[in-house]
Amino acid sequence: MRIDKAQRGSVTWRERVCHPSSHFRIPVTPLHSGLHDSNSDDIDGNKSVLSTEVGKLQQHLSLLREQYVRLQERYTTLEQQHAIATAGCQSPEGEDSFVTRLLRFVANLYDKEKYSDMIVRLSSRDIRAHRFVLAARSDNWGVSTLAEVDSLDWTGLEEEVGEAVLHWVYTDQVSLLKDHTFTLNLMRAAASFSLLPLMKRCEKALMGWVTVRNCVRLYTTADEIGAETLRDHCSTLISTHWNDFTPEDFSHMTAPLLYTMFKSKTSHPLHAAIRLQREDVVFLYLIEYDAQSVQKSLNFSIKESKDGRMFLFV
């Protein structure tokens, strides 16, 4: 078999081992010809698998969060039943004890005309209420005394939140299976009316909704209304992901609160304030540092010697 010079460079080692008289050639595929396509397919496949797994984890987390809230609801119900049973355990009537009948009687008065002596105004409707029920729950309803008013103005509250507050006042029951925004607004309303049991219940429910994305905002709200349990829970999550936050995450936080957080989370609060571009926090740091410097410079004492001379000790 004759090979032209133009073809000689393309002859493979398989052709050289063939019999000279044979015109059969074995095609040779370069080793790298399908490597790129194979890698691309593998990468796309891995991305698809990861996306599927992330979706499954998010669904699982959502189910766990819902289950947590349901368990909190069940726990609260058991607490209520235990309180009723404890209060009426010494009564031989059992279900017809005075405490049981009183609680059931009050619950049935919700938005009823019977014995109603005042109204609560919401944004689109009025709810009939009873002074003695409200007075039994709290002394802080935004008025000097309930005896001097015939209505409460709750038009500034979301209607759904106002209804939930009043329904809890009468029945001691509230559904917190909705989104965390409703629960957060309900907790604010409970704090403004000094309804501590309702506020604590909302706190426990919100802890199941805390994520890296909303923990800073929830921390701010919890600090404003004194929800210490929720605040401490958010603080732990903030500490864990401290280096992952951006200036936008703290943009809504006041300078004093943010400065307090910096001092508790890092040994270099000034560096943290500069990294997050908060000039107001830097200003607070400089004021405190300057005050400490002045205090140190004024930390002296004057003593008198035996011969009557005065000495300054720094």
From TrEMBL:
List, for all copies, the residue spans of the domain called BTB: 116-178
What SUPFAM superfamilies does the record tag this protein with? POZ domain
Q: Which residues form a coiled coil?
A: 54-81
Q: InterPro entries, alphabetically? A: ANFY1_BTB_POZ (IPR049765), ANKFY1_BACK (IPR049763), BTB/POZ_dom (IPR000210), SKP1/BTB/POZ_sf (IPR011333)
List, alphabetically, the CDD domains matched.
BACK_ANKFY1_Rank5, BTB_POZ_Rank-5
Instruction: Tell me which UniProt keywords the record has, alphabetically.
Output: Coiled coil
List the PANTHER family.
SPECKLE-TYPE POZ PROTEIN
Question: What name does UniProt use for this protein?
Answer: Rabankyrin-5
Gene that encodes it: ANKFY1
